[in-house]
Amino acid sequence: MKKLAALLLMGVLGSAQLVVAHEDHEHAYITESAALVVAQKTLTQLTEKDAGLGFGKLPANWAEVPAKNVKLHKNGDGYYIVAATNDAEGKTLYVLLSSEDGAVYDANFTGEFKNQKE
């Protein structure tokens, strides 16, 4: 739970759009391009601190992953999975985030996440 809370906080703080709910306001979903921006910011944050996701703090070169290597992997019901490929490491990190507000839920190197809706 601490892991999820830490990533959620990082996503909210680093998201490109913040949605403020109030009466007569419909939810504004983030775009795919905004999801890519959030995921790239998340890479940088994961090089600065271990978020408790099982892989530790990412090496500094993850903060240098170019935008062309950050792509939408999957657009699901209420979420995006963004794939960020680090050519120097030969690895791809997958970031699971909300399509509603850009909150980051999880990240891993498999692209498989528990309890995700298809």
Question: Topology of this protein?
Answer:
Elements (H helix, E strand, L loop, with lengths): L1 H13 L17 H17 L21 E7 L2 E8 L4 E8 L5 E5 L10
Antiparallel strand pairs: 1-2, 2-3, 3-4
Keywords:
118 residues; four-stranded antiparallel beta sheet; 2 helices; 24% strand
Mean pLDDT: 84
Question: How does the major sheet shape up?
Answer: 4 strands, antiparallel
Indicate the radius of gyration in whole angstroms. 14 Å
Low-confidence stretches: 15-22
Number of helices: 2
The separation of the N and C termini measures 23 Å
Question: Helical content, roughly?
Answer: 25-40%
Order of helices and strands: HHEEEE
How many β strands by DSSP?
Answer: 4
Class by helix and strand content? Answer: alpha+beta
> How much of the sequence is in beta strands?
15-25%
Strand order of the largest sheet: 1-2-3-4
Provide the domain count. 1
Describe the global form.
globular
